[in-house]
Amino acid sequence: MFKINIKTFIGIITSKIIIKLSKLLFKGGSNFPGKVALKIDKDILSTVAKDYEVILVTGTNGKTTTTSMIYSMVKGVSGNSITNSTGANMLPGITACFIENFSFRSSVDKKYAVIEVDEANVPLVTEYIKPKVITVTNLFRDQLDRYGEVYTTLKKILDGISKSPDSTLVLNGDESLLGDLDVKNEVQYYGFDYEVSSNKQIDINADAKFCKKCKSPYSYNYITYNHLGSFYCSECGYKRPELAYTVDNIVEQTSSGSLVYFNGNEYYINQPGTYNIYNALCAYSVAKFLGLENSTIFNALKSTSSSFGRQETLNIDNKQVKIILVKNPAGFDEAINTLTFDTKAISAAFILNDNYADGRDVSWIWDVNFEKLSSIDMSKIIISGIRIYDMAVRLKAAGLNQERFVLCESYENLLNEIKNCETDFIYILATYTSMINFRKFLHSKGYIKKLW
Fold first, then answer.
1. 421 known member of a binding site
2. What is the rounded (10 degree) CA torsion for 329, 332, 338, 339?
3. % of the chain with per-residue pLDDT over 90
4. In CATH, what number is assigned to the domain containing residue 259?
5. What integer is the mean pLDDT of 125-132?
6. N or C terminus of the chain: which is more exposed, having fewer CB within 10 Å?
7. Residue 25: which domain range?
């Protein structure tokens, strides 16, 4: 039995009641219960997370998917594993996750907590939790009005890492910003030991193009996407660190998934795209560090389906609709690549919002390679969202056939246009709040059974 002070006890009980009421009345609500608990006891997280081996997952892109993959792996060996699967990745949401799963009875079994954490919240979380592992997926420009440039994001993460020097860092070695860090932690790197393409010229709109040591332009043995790859600086000698976990070969990539080799072993990733190979490699690396068996990793990667809004496939009146979250140029470019893998007749919807969680400045869409879509024969191009006209202008400038444009200023119109598509498969590429809100709309119509 846990011995806790009265303030913490009240915080836990109150938050648990609010969580139950939120699920009953609002079908969710992951942040408010945590805010209440923290108001009662600001240190409550250190108590409710006490007996867990915690894996923190952060980075710009891929956090939710990577967290889901790691969780699938660890719950295969421990039934006491938990995760913040709703995507509530700031301090209140993480606190609520631990409180919801908290028991006043002690357990002798190993307990894992696989926690997605917003980059800016890493220092807030590590104030109270000392994770076994902190893993960082990548660093791309994202919500510039909130985070600033990638160097600012890196500093926030490093501030959090400095509070937990005993945590092992599992980092993307292909991310030039994450090499040769001034930290006390043990560091292990993962990356591609495989040439995805012959391209060695970084795109003009790529992030982190200049050496973190001497500011000279990077050179590459090969590029995977954006600024990720086997980088080196010909001026000062800074280069990609030695990799402990690698992609050795990509046997096949389709619109459904990828067949790959990690460290000499074959795995099927049940989600498409190079970025999901990175997510799977990150999850694999954490699992190997934790000592998990290859068979456990294999089964998890083969069976883990997409998280909500992350390549989630829905059936809408016999139309197959795949929702892909897009939030910055790097992620949008990879989503576009997913469309190019598809050999079926398709339509596509683009939903652009500029709410706080999306980033108020939408000029980033001009850094996305929409021109690549002009080679795809899309039956219908549906455009929606708060910034509907900005997206329409961008797609027109990219050379897409504007005669196939359909502008929808309401979700009701958007749904009707999807239902009336000539094609049986429709992609929806949506920014964060548009994805969340459209899913809520579809839930109200009965097309989504589980909102979170």
1. no
2. -120
3. 74
4. 3.40.1190.10
5. 98
6. N
7. 6-189+249-303
